[in-house]
């Protein structure tokens, strides 16, 4: 993997930014550490227009004390002219699927990656999300939303607590089982590199996977655009994101 002067990251042979070998070329992913400064990139690179229907999946934010800040993105974007529809994965599956199918763009917000993936599996919508992205619906992932786009999410354990369901006193505590992601891309985004809150955890993850080109560091004021088998690093230009 290499990065050119214009920010385009070339993938190794046999890997694709938008999915595994032979992955549909219509996949468009925008992966970021923070929502701050992300909207202009969504408009420029994903063609997001005023009035577009955004399926906002908030569940990752419910597992973290800072989650309220992640969820505030939804009302802010409504004020900016988007039709933001909150898709709570704890609802009825038929309603969840109906909401997702009616979206012009899918947005999975930040929070706890393991909690988000549990919710996606419990709702049974991971195959539907892959189907929609394969059909050309853009996928935008913020922090946890970016992490779950990978083939697996176990690598994020130094940053996100697993918070497995409690066991009884009589039940043996089992080792954490491997946690597959959505598999929308072959790369593993490592968010919050250099950040004040989670930068140390990001450094630990990168150290653990040093030399593996499949792990991409991402600062809070950066985003990665995966399209057509290529990945481009973009700057959000957000001063607020640089303070996180």
Automatic annotation (TrEMBL):
Belongs to the peptidase S51 family. Residues 1-23 are annotated as: Disordered. It holds the Pfam family Peptidase_S51. The keyword Glycosyltransferase does not apply. GO terms for biological process: proteolysis. Gene3D superfamilies: 3.40.50.880. GO terms for molecular function: serine-type peptidase activity. Coiled coil: none annotated. InterPro entries: Class_I_gatase-like, Peptidase_S51. The lineage of its organism: Bacteria, Bacillati, Actinomycetota, Actinomycetes, Bifidobacteriales. The keyword Cell membrane does not apply. Keywords: Hydrolase, Protease, Serine protease. This is Peptidase.
């Amino acid at each position: 993997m290499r990065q050119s002067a214009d920010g385009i990251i070339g993938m190794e042979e046999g890997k694709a930014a938008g999915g595994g070998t032979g992955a549909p070329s219509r996949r468009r992913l925008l992966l970021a550490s923070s929502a701050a400064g992300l909207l202009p990139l969504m408009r420029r690179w994903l063609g997001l227009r005023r009035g577009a229907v955004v399926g906002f999946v908030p569940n990752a934010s419910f597992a973290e004390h800072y989650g309220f800040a992640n969820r505030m993105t939804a009302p802010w974007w409504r004020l900016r002219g988007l039709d933001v529809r909150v898709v709570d994965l704890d609802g009825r599956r038929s309603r969840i699927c109906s909401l997702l199918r009616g979206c012009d763009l899918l947005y999975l917000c930040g929070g706890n990656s393991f909690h988000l993936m549990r919710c996606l599996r419990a709702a049974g919508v991971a195959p539907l999300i892959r189907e929609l992205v394969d059909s050309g619906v853009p996928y935008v992932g913020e922090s946890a939303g970016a992490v779950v786009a990978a083939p697996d999410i176990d690598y994020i354990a130094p940053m996100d607590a697993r918070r497995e369901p409690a066991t009884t006193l009589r039940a043996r505590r089992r080792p954490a089982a491997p946690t597959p992601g959505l598999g929308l891309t072959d790369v593993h985004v490592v968010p919050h590199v250099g950040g004040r809150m989670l930068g140390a955890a990001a450094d630990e993850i990168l150290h653990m996977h040093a030399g593996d080109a499949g792990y991409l560091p991402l600062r809070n004021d950066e985003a990665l655009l995966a399209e057509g088998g290529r990945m481009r690093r973009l700057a959000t230009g957000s001063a607020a994101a640089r303070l996180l």
